[in-house]
Design goal:
Strand order of the largest sheet: 8-7-6-9-10-11-12
Number of domains: 2
Oligomer: single chain
CATH class of the largest domain: Alpha Beta
Number of strands: 12
Helix content: 25-40%
Shape: elongated
Distance between the termini: 34 Å
Bound molecules: D-malate
Strand content: 5-15%
Mean pLDDT: 94
């Protein structure tokens, strides 16, 4: 029995093994998975008859056309697919999957020019990034990383670790997509007021989400003691957080508490000017900064920002939970299979550029 792969999404819910027993097969494709993928997602692809080749491909090999031996590639953020890699890939490559949200490591315009759809998994990691963002905010305000370092040094610095509450403070969210809305909902439950800067947000969404929408990012900075970044990195947002804007932050909340100013970024490195961030920590403009993402990743251990006591960071782990990775893998496997079968995936990020 032969069956169209376009029905696979629904049928996997039933029982793939049962279908295989009945003799179901799909046209076999060769899929490179270069930055890892959840085991179940790899099995999903393999059980549908595809060959999955796991492992990194060097920058040099990519540039030499290594992808011409594949029908599809699934990457996370480590593998970079610039225009020259896509141009060297020949005619066989027919879909690029980004197991995650951000596609800044893929030249989606060059892919579209080559007729290759780029699909991502925009919903799968939302909750995990929301939770990490809240973790960073709370860790900053209650000095958790600094307290831990001090304890390990044999100190018992109760007075130095006096923090502030989130309740009663204004949280500014730059970008107001799924993740920011999730952060906003939790922050509101903790008693924060939400302010948003997102030039693409319909005002009615801001109203429904009970957030004050700023037309100018500067007024967001001048109204918020706490700011969390949730936009994409592009020409418009590169170094959007700079010295001038940090200097606008009020340092005192509406409830009269001198809570200082705090920044969290779990979106993309490069949106914050890291030199300006460090200077603001050094001169007291900022009381804390917490980053999951950096302009250069991996960030070198010698980076001056990492030495500042009021900075703490994580190594780009927003989507690194068991739950998110299972969902990301499954979503991207289904998307890849759909495209390989001639279907159109609703998470194609370059659909507007494809002919
Ligand atoms: C994403 O864009 O999905 C996240 O930053 C996680 C990742 O890059 O793996």
């Amino acid at each position: 029995m032969r069956m169209s792969v376009s029905n696979i999404g629904a049928l996997f819910e039933l029982d793939l093994r049962f279908m295989t027993l009945l003799g179901w097969t799909a046209d076999m494709a060769r899929i490179a998975v270069t930055d890892g993928m959840a085991k179940d997602a790899v099995s999903l692809l393999e059980q549908s008859g595809h060959e999955v080749v796991l492992g990194t491909i060097s920058k040099g090999d990519l540039a030499q056309g290594a992808l011409s031996e594949f029908d599809a590639i699934v990457v996370r953020s480590a593998t970079k697919l610039p225009a020259e890699v896509i141009a060297a890939s020949g005619d066989r490559l027919s879909v690029i999957g980004r197991a995650g949200v951000g596609v800044d490591n893929i030249d989606i315009v060059a892919a579209a020019k080559a007729g290759i759809p780029v699909v991502n998994a925009p919903r799968a990691s939302t909750q995990s990034v929301v939770e990490l963002t809240m973790g960073h905010l709370l860790a900053s305000l209650r000095h958790i990383p600094r307290s831990d370092r001090s304890l390990r040094d044999g100190q018992w610095e109760k007075k130095a670790m006096k923090g502030t509450e989130l309740s009663g403070k204004n949280l500014g969210l730059i970008g107001f997509g799924r993740i920011a809305q999730g952060v906003g909902a939790i922050a509101q439950a903790l008693g924060m007021s939400i302010h948003t800067y997102d030039p693409y947000l319909p005002p009615k969404v801001a109203k429904i989400q009970n957030t004050t929408l700023h037309k100018n990012v500067d007024t967001l900075f001048s109204n918020c003691t706490h700011i969390s970044i949730h936009c994409n990195l592009n020409d418009e947002t590169h170094h959007l957080v700079n010295a001038e804007r940090l200097a606008l932050m009020p340092g005192r909340s509406n409830d009269g508490i001198a809570c200082g100013n705090h920044i969290v970024n779990c979106a993309r490195g490069g949106i914050i000017d890291e030199d300006a961030l460090l200077a603001a920590l050094e001169d007291g403009t900022l009381s804390s900064a917490a980053l999951d993402v950096f302009e250069i990743e991996p960030v070198p251990a010698s980076a001056p920002l990492l030495q500042h006591p009021h900075f703490h960071g994580t190594p780009h782990i927003g989507a690194a939970t068991m739950e998110a990775q299972a969902r990301v893998g499954r979503d991207i496997a289904l998307a890849i299979m759909k495209v390989l079968d001639g279907g159109v995936c609703d998470t194609t990020v370059n659909s507007h550029l494809l002919g």
